[in-house]
Write a structure and sequence with these properties.
The protein is an alpha/beta fold. It has a single domain (about 35-150, about 160-210, about 255-440), classed as TIM Barrel. It is built from twelve helices and 16 strands. It has helices at about 1-15, 50-65, 105-115, 140, 175-195, 215-225, 255-280, 295, 375-385, 405-415, 425-430, 435-440; strands at about 35-40, 70-75, 95, 95-100, 120-125, 130, 150-155, 155-160, 170, 200-205, 240-245, 245-250, 285-290, 335, 390-395, 420-425. The strands form five sheets. An eight-stranded parallel barrel has the order 1-2-5-10-13-14-15-16, surrounded by five helices. A two-stranded antiparallel sheet has the order 3-4. A two-stranded antiparallel ribbon has the order 6-9. The longest helix has 26 residues, at about 255-280. The radius of gyration is 22 Å and the shape is globular. Keywords: Signal. This is Glycosyl hydrolase-like 10 domain-containing protein. It comes from Solitalea canadensis (strain ATCC 29591 / DSM 3403 / JCM 21819 / LMG 8368 / NBRC 15130 / NCIMB 12057 / USAM 9D) (Flexibacter canadensis).
Length: about 450
Amino acid sequence: MNKLVIALCAFAMLTAASCDGSGSKATADKKFPRKNILWFDATANFKRFSYKDSVIYYLKKSKDAGVTDVVIDVKPITGEVLYPSKIAPVMQDWDGFKKTENFDLLTVCIEEGHKLGLVVHASTNVFVAGHNFFDRGVVYSDSTKRSWASLNNTPDGLKPITSIKKKYSSMLNPVRRDVQEYELSILKELIGMYPKLDGIILDRVRYDGIEADFSNESREAYEKYAGHKVANFPDDIYKYEKEGDKPVRKEGVEFKKWVEFRAKVISDFIWEARKELKAINPKISYGDYTGSWYPTYYEVGVNWASKEINAKDYFDQATPEYNKFGYAEALDLYTSGCYYYEVDKSESKHIDKNNKERTEAGQHKGTADFYTVEGSNELAVKLMNGKAPMYGGLYVDQYNGHPEQFVRAMKMCQKKSDGVMIFDIVHIINNNWWNELKEGFKN
């Protein structure tokens, strides 16, 4: 009996050690590699990284600060690319600056990064091909691709996203096969051109938001999936009704099935892209970058959780079939934007949701625990369910003027996930926060 009691106690202690307070799988067992990731945005750093010596300088600065992995953005939201593609247009200028030095940014990052011991990933913005603020990009310059832009169901009726100038990203319609094939061709070209690249991280593999996409192509694809015609489109998905002077979205009879359908579209693409890219380079790390606000992330058509997670536990719009379209199992790396100023869960009670600006796609106002760095990390790790490493992502500009809060947020990501992803190096440079970066990377 004493041996049995001792054994049960030992098992209980091991079980407790494998979970954090939220019940999510902890990462203290070092199942996944610890990483300190730093993102290099394409347009924000375009001029700075148009000079080879500058690229090498900042790779060294990053390494000295404790960075283990760099992510080089080579396909910004315009749909142009920063490498010599034969498919996508190559970005030669940005914000009045024209590149003059002739060198391949990604080749330099790979070669010089590897000399320093850095792991080098490339990132691409997938279902987007234009910048609405500048009327620039593939959907603006290529007449054959203008119809690819999302058609949004707004309070003012159906509108192409290129006409909605408050939105800076000209998002595409992910359901279209020609869009999918075009984006896959760019990804395959990229992986084939750079065999020494360590990883690829996909960004914006999603819909624009709940308003997208209401084109004829989407209606036909949905009706085929649902197995019936939609009697009143788009009202049976949702419609707007006035409450006072404010239009309010009212869900229709098809809404939940529509949510499920959109999740399948994105999940299918994630799995297809993995298969195609691994066929070219089986060793490539296949990653994804999304927002952390899972209870509302269905609005952009994405279920980044494990298939074993019951989404109904997190939001009412989930159907039983929705769980099948989780894609954590497809990933080798996942980074989640834990984009909140408040660090500890205890700080959530101080959030004034009436004054809190949250403008990322699908992001709502609120004071739940997951609206903090700690809570969002815990939730993301739990939803990954041990299928892929999760690296908590921080948007540096949210801590502008508060370097101590930035360091606290970094340390929280280190504590609650497999490491930290910093977006973006431009803010570290502009704030001269290299010492803060180094401090935050310390375990």
